[in-house]
Amino acid sequence: MSPLVLLLAFAVDAGLSEEVFHGRPAWVLQNGSIRVAVLKGGGHIAEVRQMTGDPRRDVNPMRVPHYPTIDPQTYNDARDNKIYGDDPHRWLSSGYMGHLLCFPFYGPPSSPEEIAAGLGNHGEAPIVEWRKTGGGVTGDHIVLHYAADLTMTQYRVERTVTLPKQGAWVKVEESVENKLFFDRPIQWMQHATFGPPFIEPGKSVLRISAVKGDRGGKLPADESVRERVMPAVKPSGSYTALLMDPARKYQFFTMSHPDYPVTIGYVFPTNSNPWAADWQENQRAQQKPWNGKVIARGIEFGCSPYAEGLRKAVERGSLLGVPSYRWIGARQTLRTEFVIFLTEKYVRNASWDGRSVTLEEAR
C-alpha cells in the first residue's frame, strides 16, 4: 500500500462520532489505528480494538454480554424484570458492557433501605445516563468529554477520554465531586471486564504488578499473584484481591490470549489505586440474565480489596495494613486517571510518563 493511500485512510478514519454499538447509542473515537466506543447508558467503555483489517488482530477484548442489553436509565420493572431478574443487580446487568465505573460504592447496597430507594450493585454511576459535554479533534488528539449527575447519591462524575492521532493507547481522566457539605466515605473502582472470544478458560493470561493476594484470608501457596492463567474447570468462579506494588508510582496489568495476536493493558497511578482484583466467571452464576452461560474475567482496580459494599468496607477498615475505602471531603473534587493500550507483543512491564506508554517485552 502506498504512503498516499495510508494517509487517505487515516484522514477518513480519524475523529469523534456518534454511532450505534450493539444496539446502543455510543460515542466512538478512532485514529485509524485503534477504535474506542463509549456507551451513553452507564458510561461504559465497551470497545477498545485495533483497526488492521485482520479479524484476529481486531478482536474486541471487552465483554459484550450474550444477552441483549439496554440503556439502564430506561429500565422498567414491569417490562424488563422477566429478562434481567428482580434483584439489585438487575439495573447493572441490563446495560453492563466492558469497562464500568463502580461508584460511590463497590458491590451490593449496604441495606434493605438502600435497595428500596433504588440503589443497585456497584453504585449509581454505571446505571445512569452520561451526557457529552464537549470534544472533537484538537491538535494531535481526539477528545471526548462526558459526565453524569448522580442525583440519588449527590455526586457528579466527569471523564475526559483522549486518543492521540497516532498511537495505540487511550487516556481516561476521571473526577468525582461531592455535592454535599460534609465528608463521606466512598469506594471508587474501575471494573475492566473482558469476555469471549478473547477470554477463554485455560488460555487467557493476566500479568499484573501485584505483590500479595487474598482470597477470604488466604491465597494458595502455589498460585502466583503476578501471572495468572484462568482455569479451565467449569462451572467455576473466583475472586482474588490483589495488593499492588507500593514501590511503584504507576501500576499495570495486561490480558492476553495465545490464539489472538493482541494484548490489552492498563496503566494507573498507585496513590488512588492500591488494590486490584481478579474476578473470574465460568458458567457458574445461574441468576437472570446470566443463566449459567457467562464467561468473563474482570480486573477491578481502585481503593477497595473486596466488592462487599460501602458499609462492610468501612467496618473492615483495612486489609494487609492498607485501607479498604477512602474519604471525600465536603464539596471536594477528587481526580484519577488510567491509560488503556494495545500491543501485539507479550508485555512483562508497562509504565506511563504523562505523555506516552513504555512497554517491556516479555521473553
Report the mean per-residue pLDDT as an integer.
Answer: 94
CATH architecture classification:
Distorted Sandwich
Give the overall silhouette. globular
C-alpha Rg (nearest Å): 20 Å
Q: What is the count of distinct domains?
A: 1
Q: What would you say about this model in short?
A:
This protein is mainly β.
Spell out the blueprint of helices and strands:
Layout: H1 3-13, E1 15-21, E2 24-30, E3 34-39, E4 45-50, H2 77-84, H3 90-95, E5 99-102, H4 112-116, E6 131-138, E7 141-150, E8 155-164, E9 169-178, E10 184-186, E11 189-194, E12 205-208, E13 210-214, E14 227-229, E15 236-244, E16 250-257, E17 260-269, E18 275-282, E19 295-302, H5 310-316, E20 318-319, E21 322-323, E22 326-328, E23 333-343, E24 347-352, E25 357-361
Antiparallel strand pairs: 1-2, 2-3, 3-4, 5-11, 6-7, 7-8, 8-9, 9-23, 10-22, 11-19, 12-14, 12-16, 13-15, 15-18, 16-17, 17-23, 18-19, 20-21, 24-25
Molecular structure report:
The protein has 363 residues and is mainly β. The protein has a single domain, classed as Beta-galactosidase, Chain A, domain 5. Helix content is 10%, strand content 44%. The chain contains 5 helices and 25 strands. The two termini are 32 Å apart.
Name its key features.
six-stranded antiparallel beta sheet, globular, 363 residues, 25 strands, single chain, 5 helices, Beta-galactosidase, Chain A, domain 5, nine-stranded antiparallel beta sheet, mainly beta
